[in-house]
Every structure is written in C-alpha cells, then in structure tokens.
Design brief:
By secondary structure, the chain is α+β, with helices and mostly antiparallel strands. Helix content is 42%, strand content 14%. The chain has 5 helices and 3 strands. Strands 1-2-3 form a 3-stranded antiparallel sheet, covered by helices on one side. Helix 2 packs parallel to helix 5. It is globular and about 45 Å long. The site of zinc ion has 8 residues, from helix 2. Zinc ion (ZN) binds next to helix 2.
Length: 173
C-alpha cells in the first residue's frame, strides 16, 4: 500500500510543479469563473471555451493555493479538454463520488451551498450510477487519499465547483 501512496504523491506533486493548461483565455469567447476556498486560501480561476457543438475545445487554469487544490485543477483541465459539457458534468459527479460527496455529511456547518457545492445533481439520480461507467478519472485517482482529511476535500473540489459554475455559464450563453 505504501507503494501506491508514493505513486499518488508523485502524481500530485507532478501536477503541482508542472501544472497543465496553465494560463488564461480571451473572454469572450471563453468564460471566466473564479473560485475561492477561504478555509485554505486556495484560489482557482477557470477559463472555459465551449464550441457550437458543445465541446470544451479549450480550458485554462489560473490562481494559486495548496498542492491539493492546484494539482486537482491541473488534472481536471486534462480530463475535461475535448470532452462534451455532458461528459464534463459526469466527471464532476464521478470526482465528487471519489471525494465521498453524495450525502450531506461534509462539515455539517451548512456552508456547502455557500461554497457552491451542489450536493444534489440536477440530472436524473440514476445517472450517477450508470453514467459514470464510461468515465475514467485517470490521474485524479491519486487524490482519493484526500478523503481521509475532510478539510482538504474542499481544496480538492474547489476547481470542480468552479468548473460547474463555468459550465452553467457556457450553457446559458
Ligand atoms: Zn488547499
């Protein structure tokens, strides 16, 4: 098991030291959404560019914060680039599942809504079980150890909540 944890740590540090898709995109056409995790001081800015076919044809990540928040954002950018909005939403559900967020038991301070964590996916509930079969989390699996440290879950999910907001904006536009 120690070997696996070492591997996970290496993956997280690699994304932290060499973040993928780092930068900015022109707005418009890209959507820019900022996320902030006051518990840790993490900041994530997601630039999302969706084409007419509903495909995320470009994504960029800016911001600063701890290794968990920044590496999660980097891995997320790789995972969603080239995917459809629908696939990206499924990835959000899958990642939150990895973070054990499908019930109302995180923190218990009622701040989830304020932080933009959508605990009740808008899509059909059966979607959560069946819809994630084709979703590959890849490097994101490296973050599963975060579940043991509840306060760090908000670091790991920050970029995903920010992405969810950006997807909403991209869908409305
Ligand atoms: Zn953090």
């Amino acid at each position: 098991m120690a070997g696996l944890e070492d591997l996970y740590r290496e993956i997280i540090l690699d994304h932290y030291r060499s973040p993928r898709n780092r930068g900015e995109l022109d707005t418009p056409p890209a959507h820019r959404v900022e996320g902030f995790n006051p518990l840790c001081g993490d900041e994530i800015i997601v630039y999302l560019q969706v084409n007419d076919a509903g495909i995320i044809d470009d994504v960029a990540i800016a911001g600063q914060g701890c290794s968990i928040s920044q590496s999660s954002a980097s891995m997320m950018s790789v995972a969603i680039k080239g995917k459809t909005i629908e696939q990206a939403r499924k990835l959000i559900v899958a990642f939150k599942g990895l973070m054990s967020i499908h019930e109302n038991d995180i923190g218990g301070d009622g701040s989830e809504t304020a932080l933009g964590i959508d605990l009740a996916p808008k899509s059909d509930p059966s979607d959560t079980a069946s819809g994630t079969d084709d979703i590959k989390l890849g490097d994101l699996e490296a973050l599963r150890g975060v579940v043991k440290f509840p306060i760090r879950i908000k670091c790991a999910t920050l970029s995903w909540n920010t992405l969810a907001q950006a997807l909403d904006e991209a869908t409305v536009a």
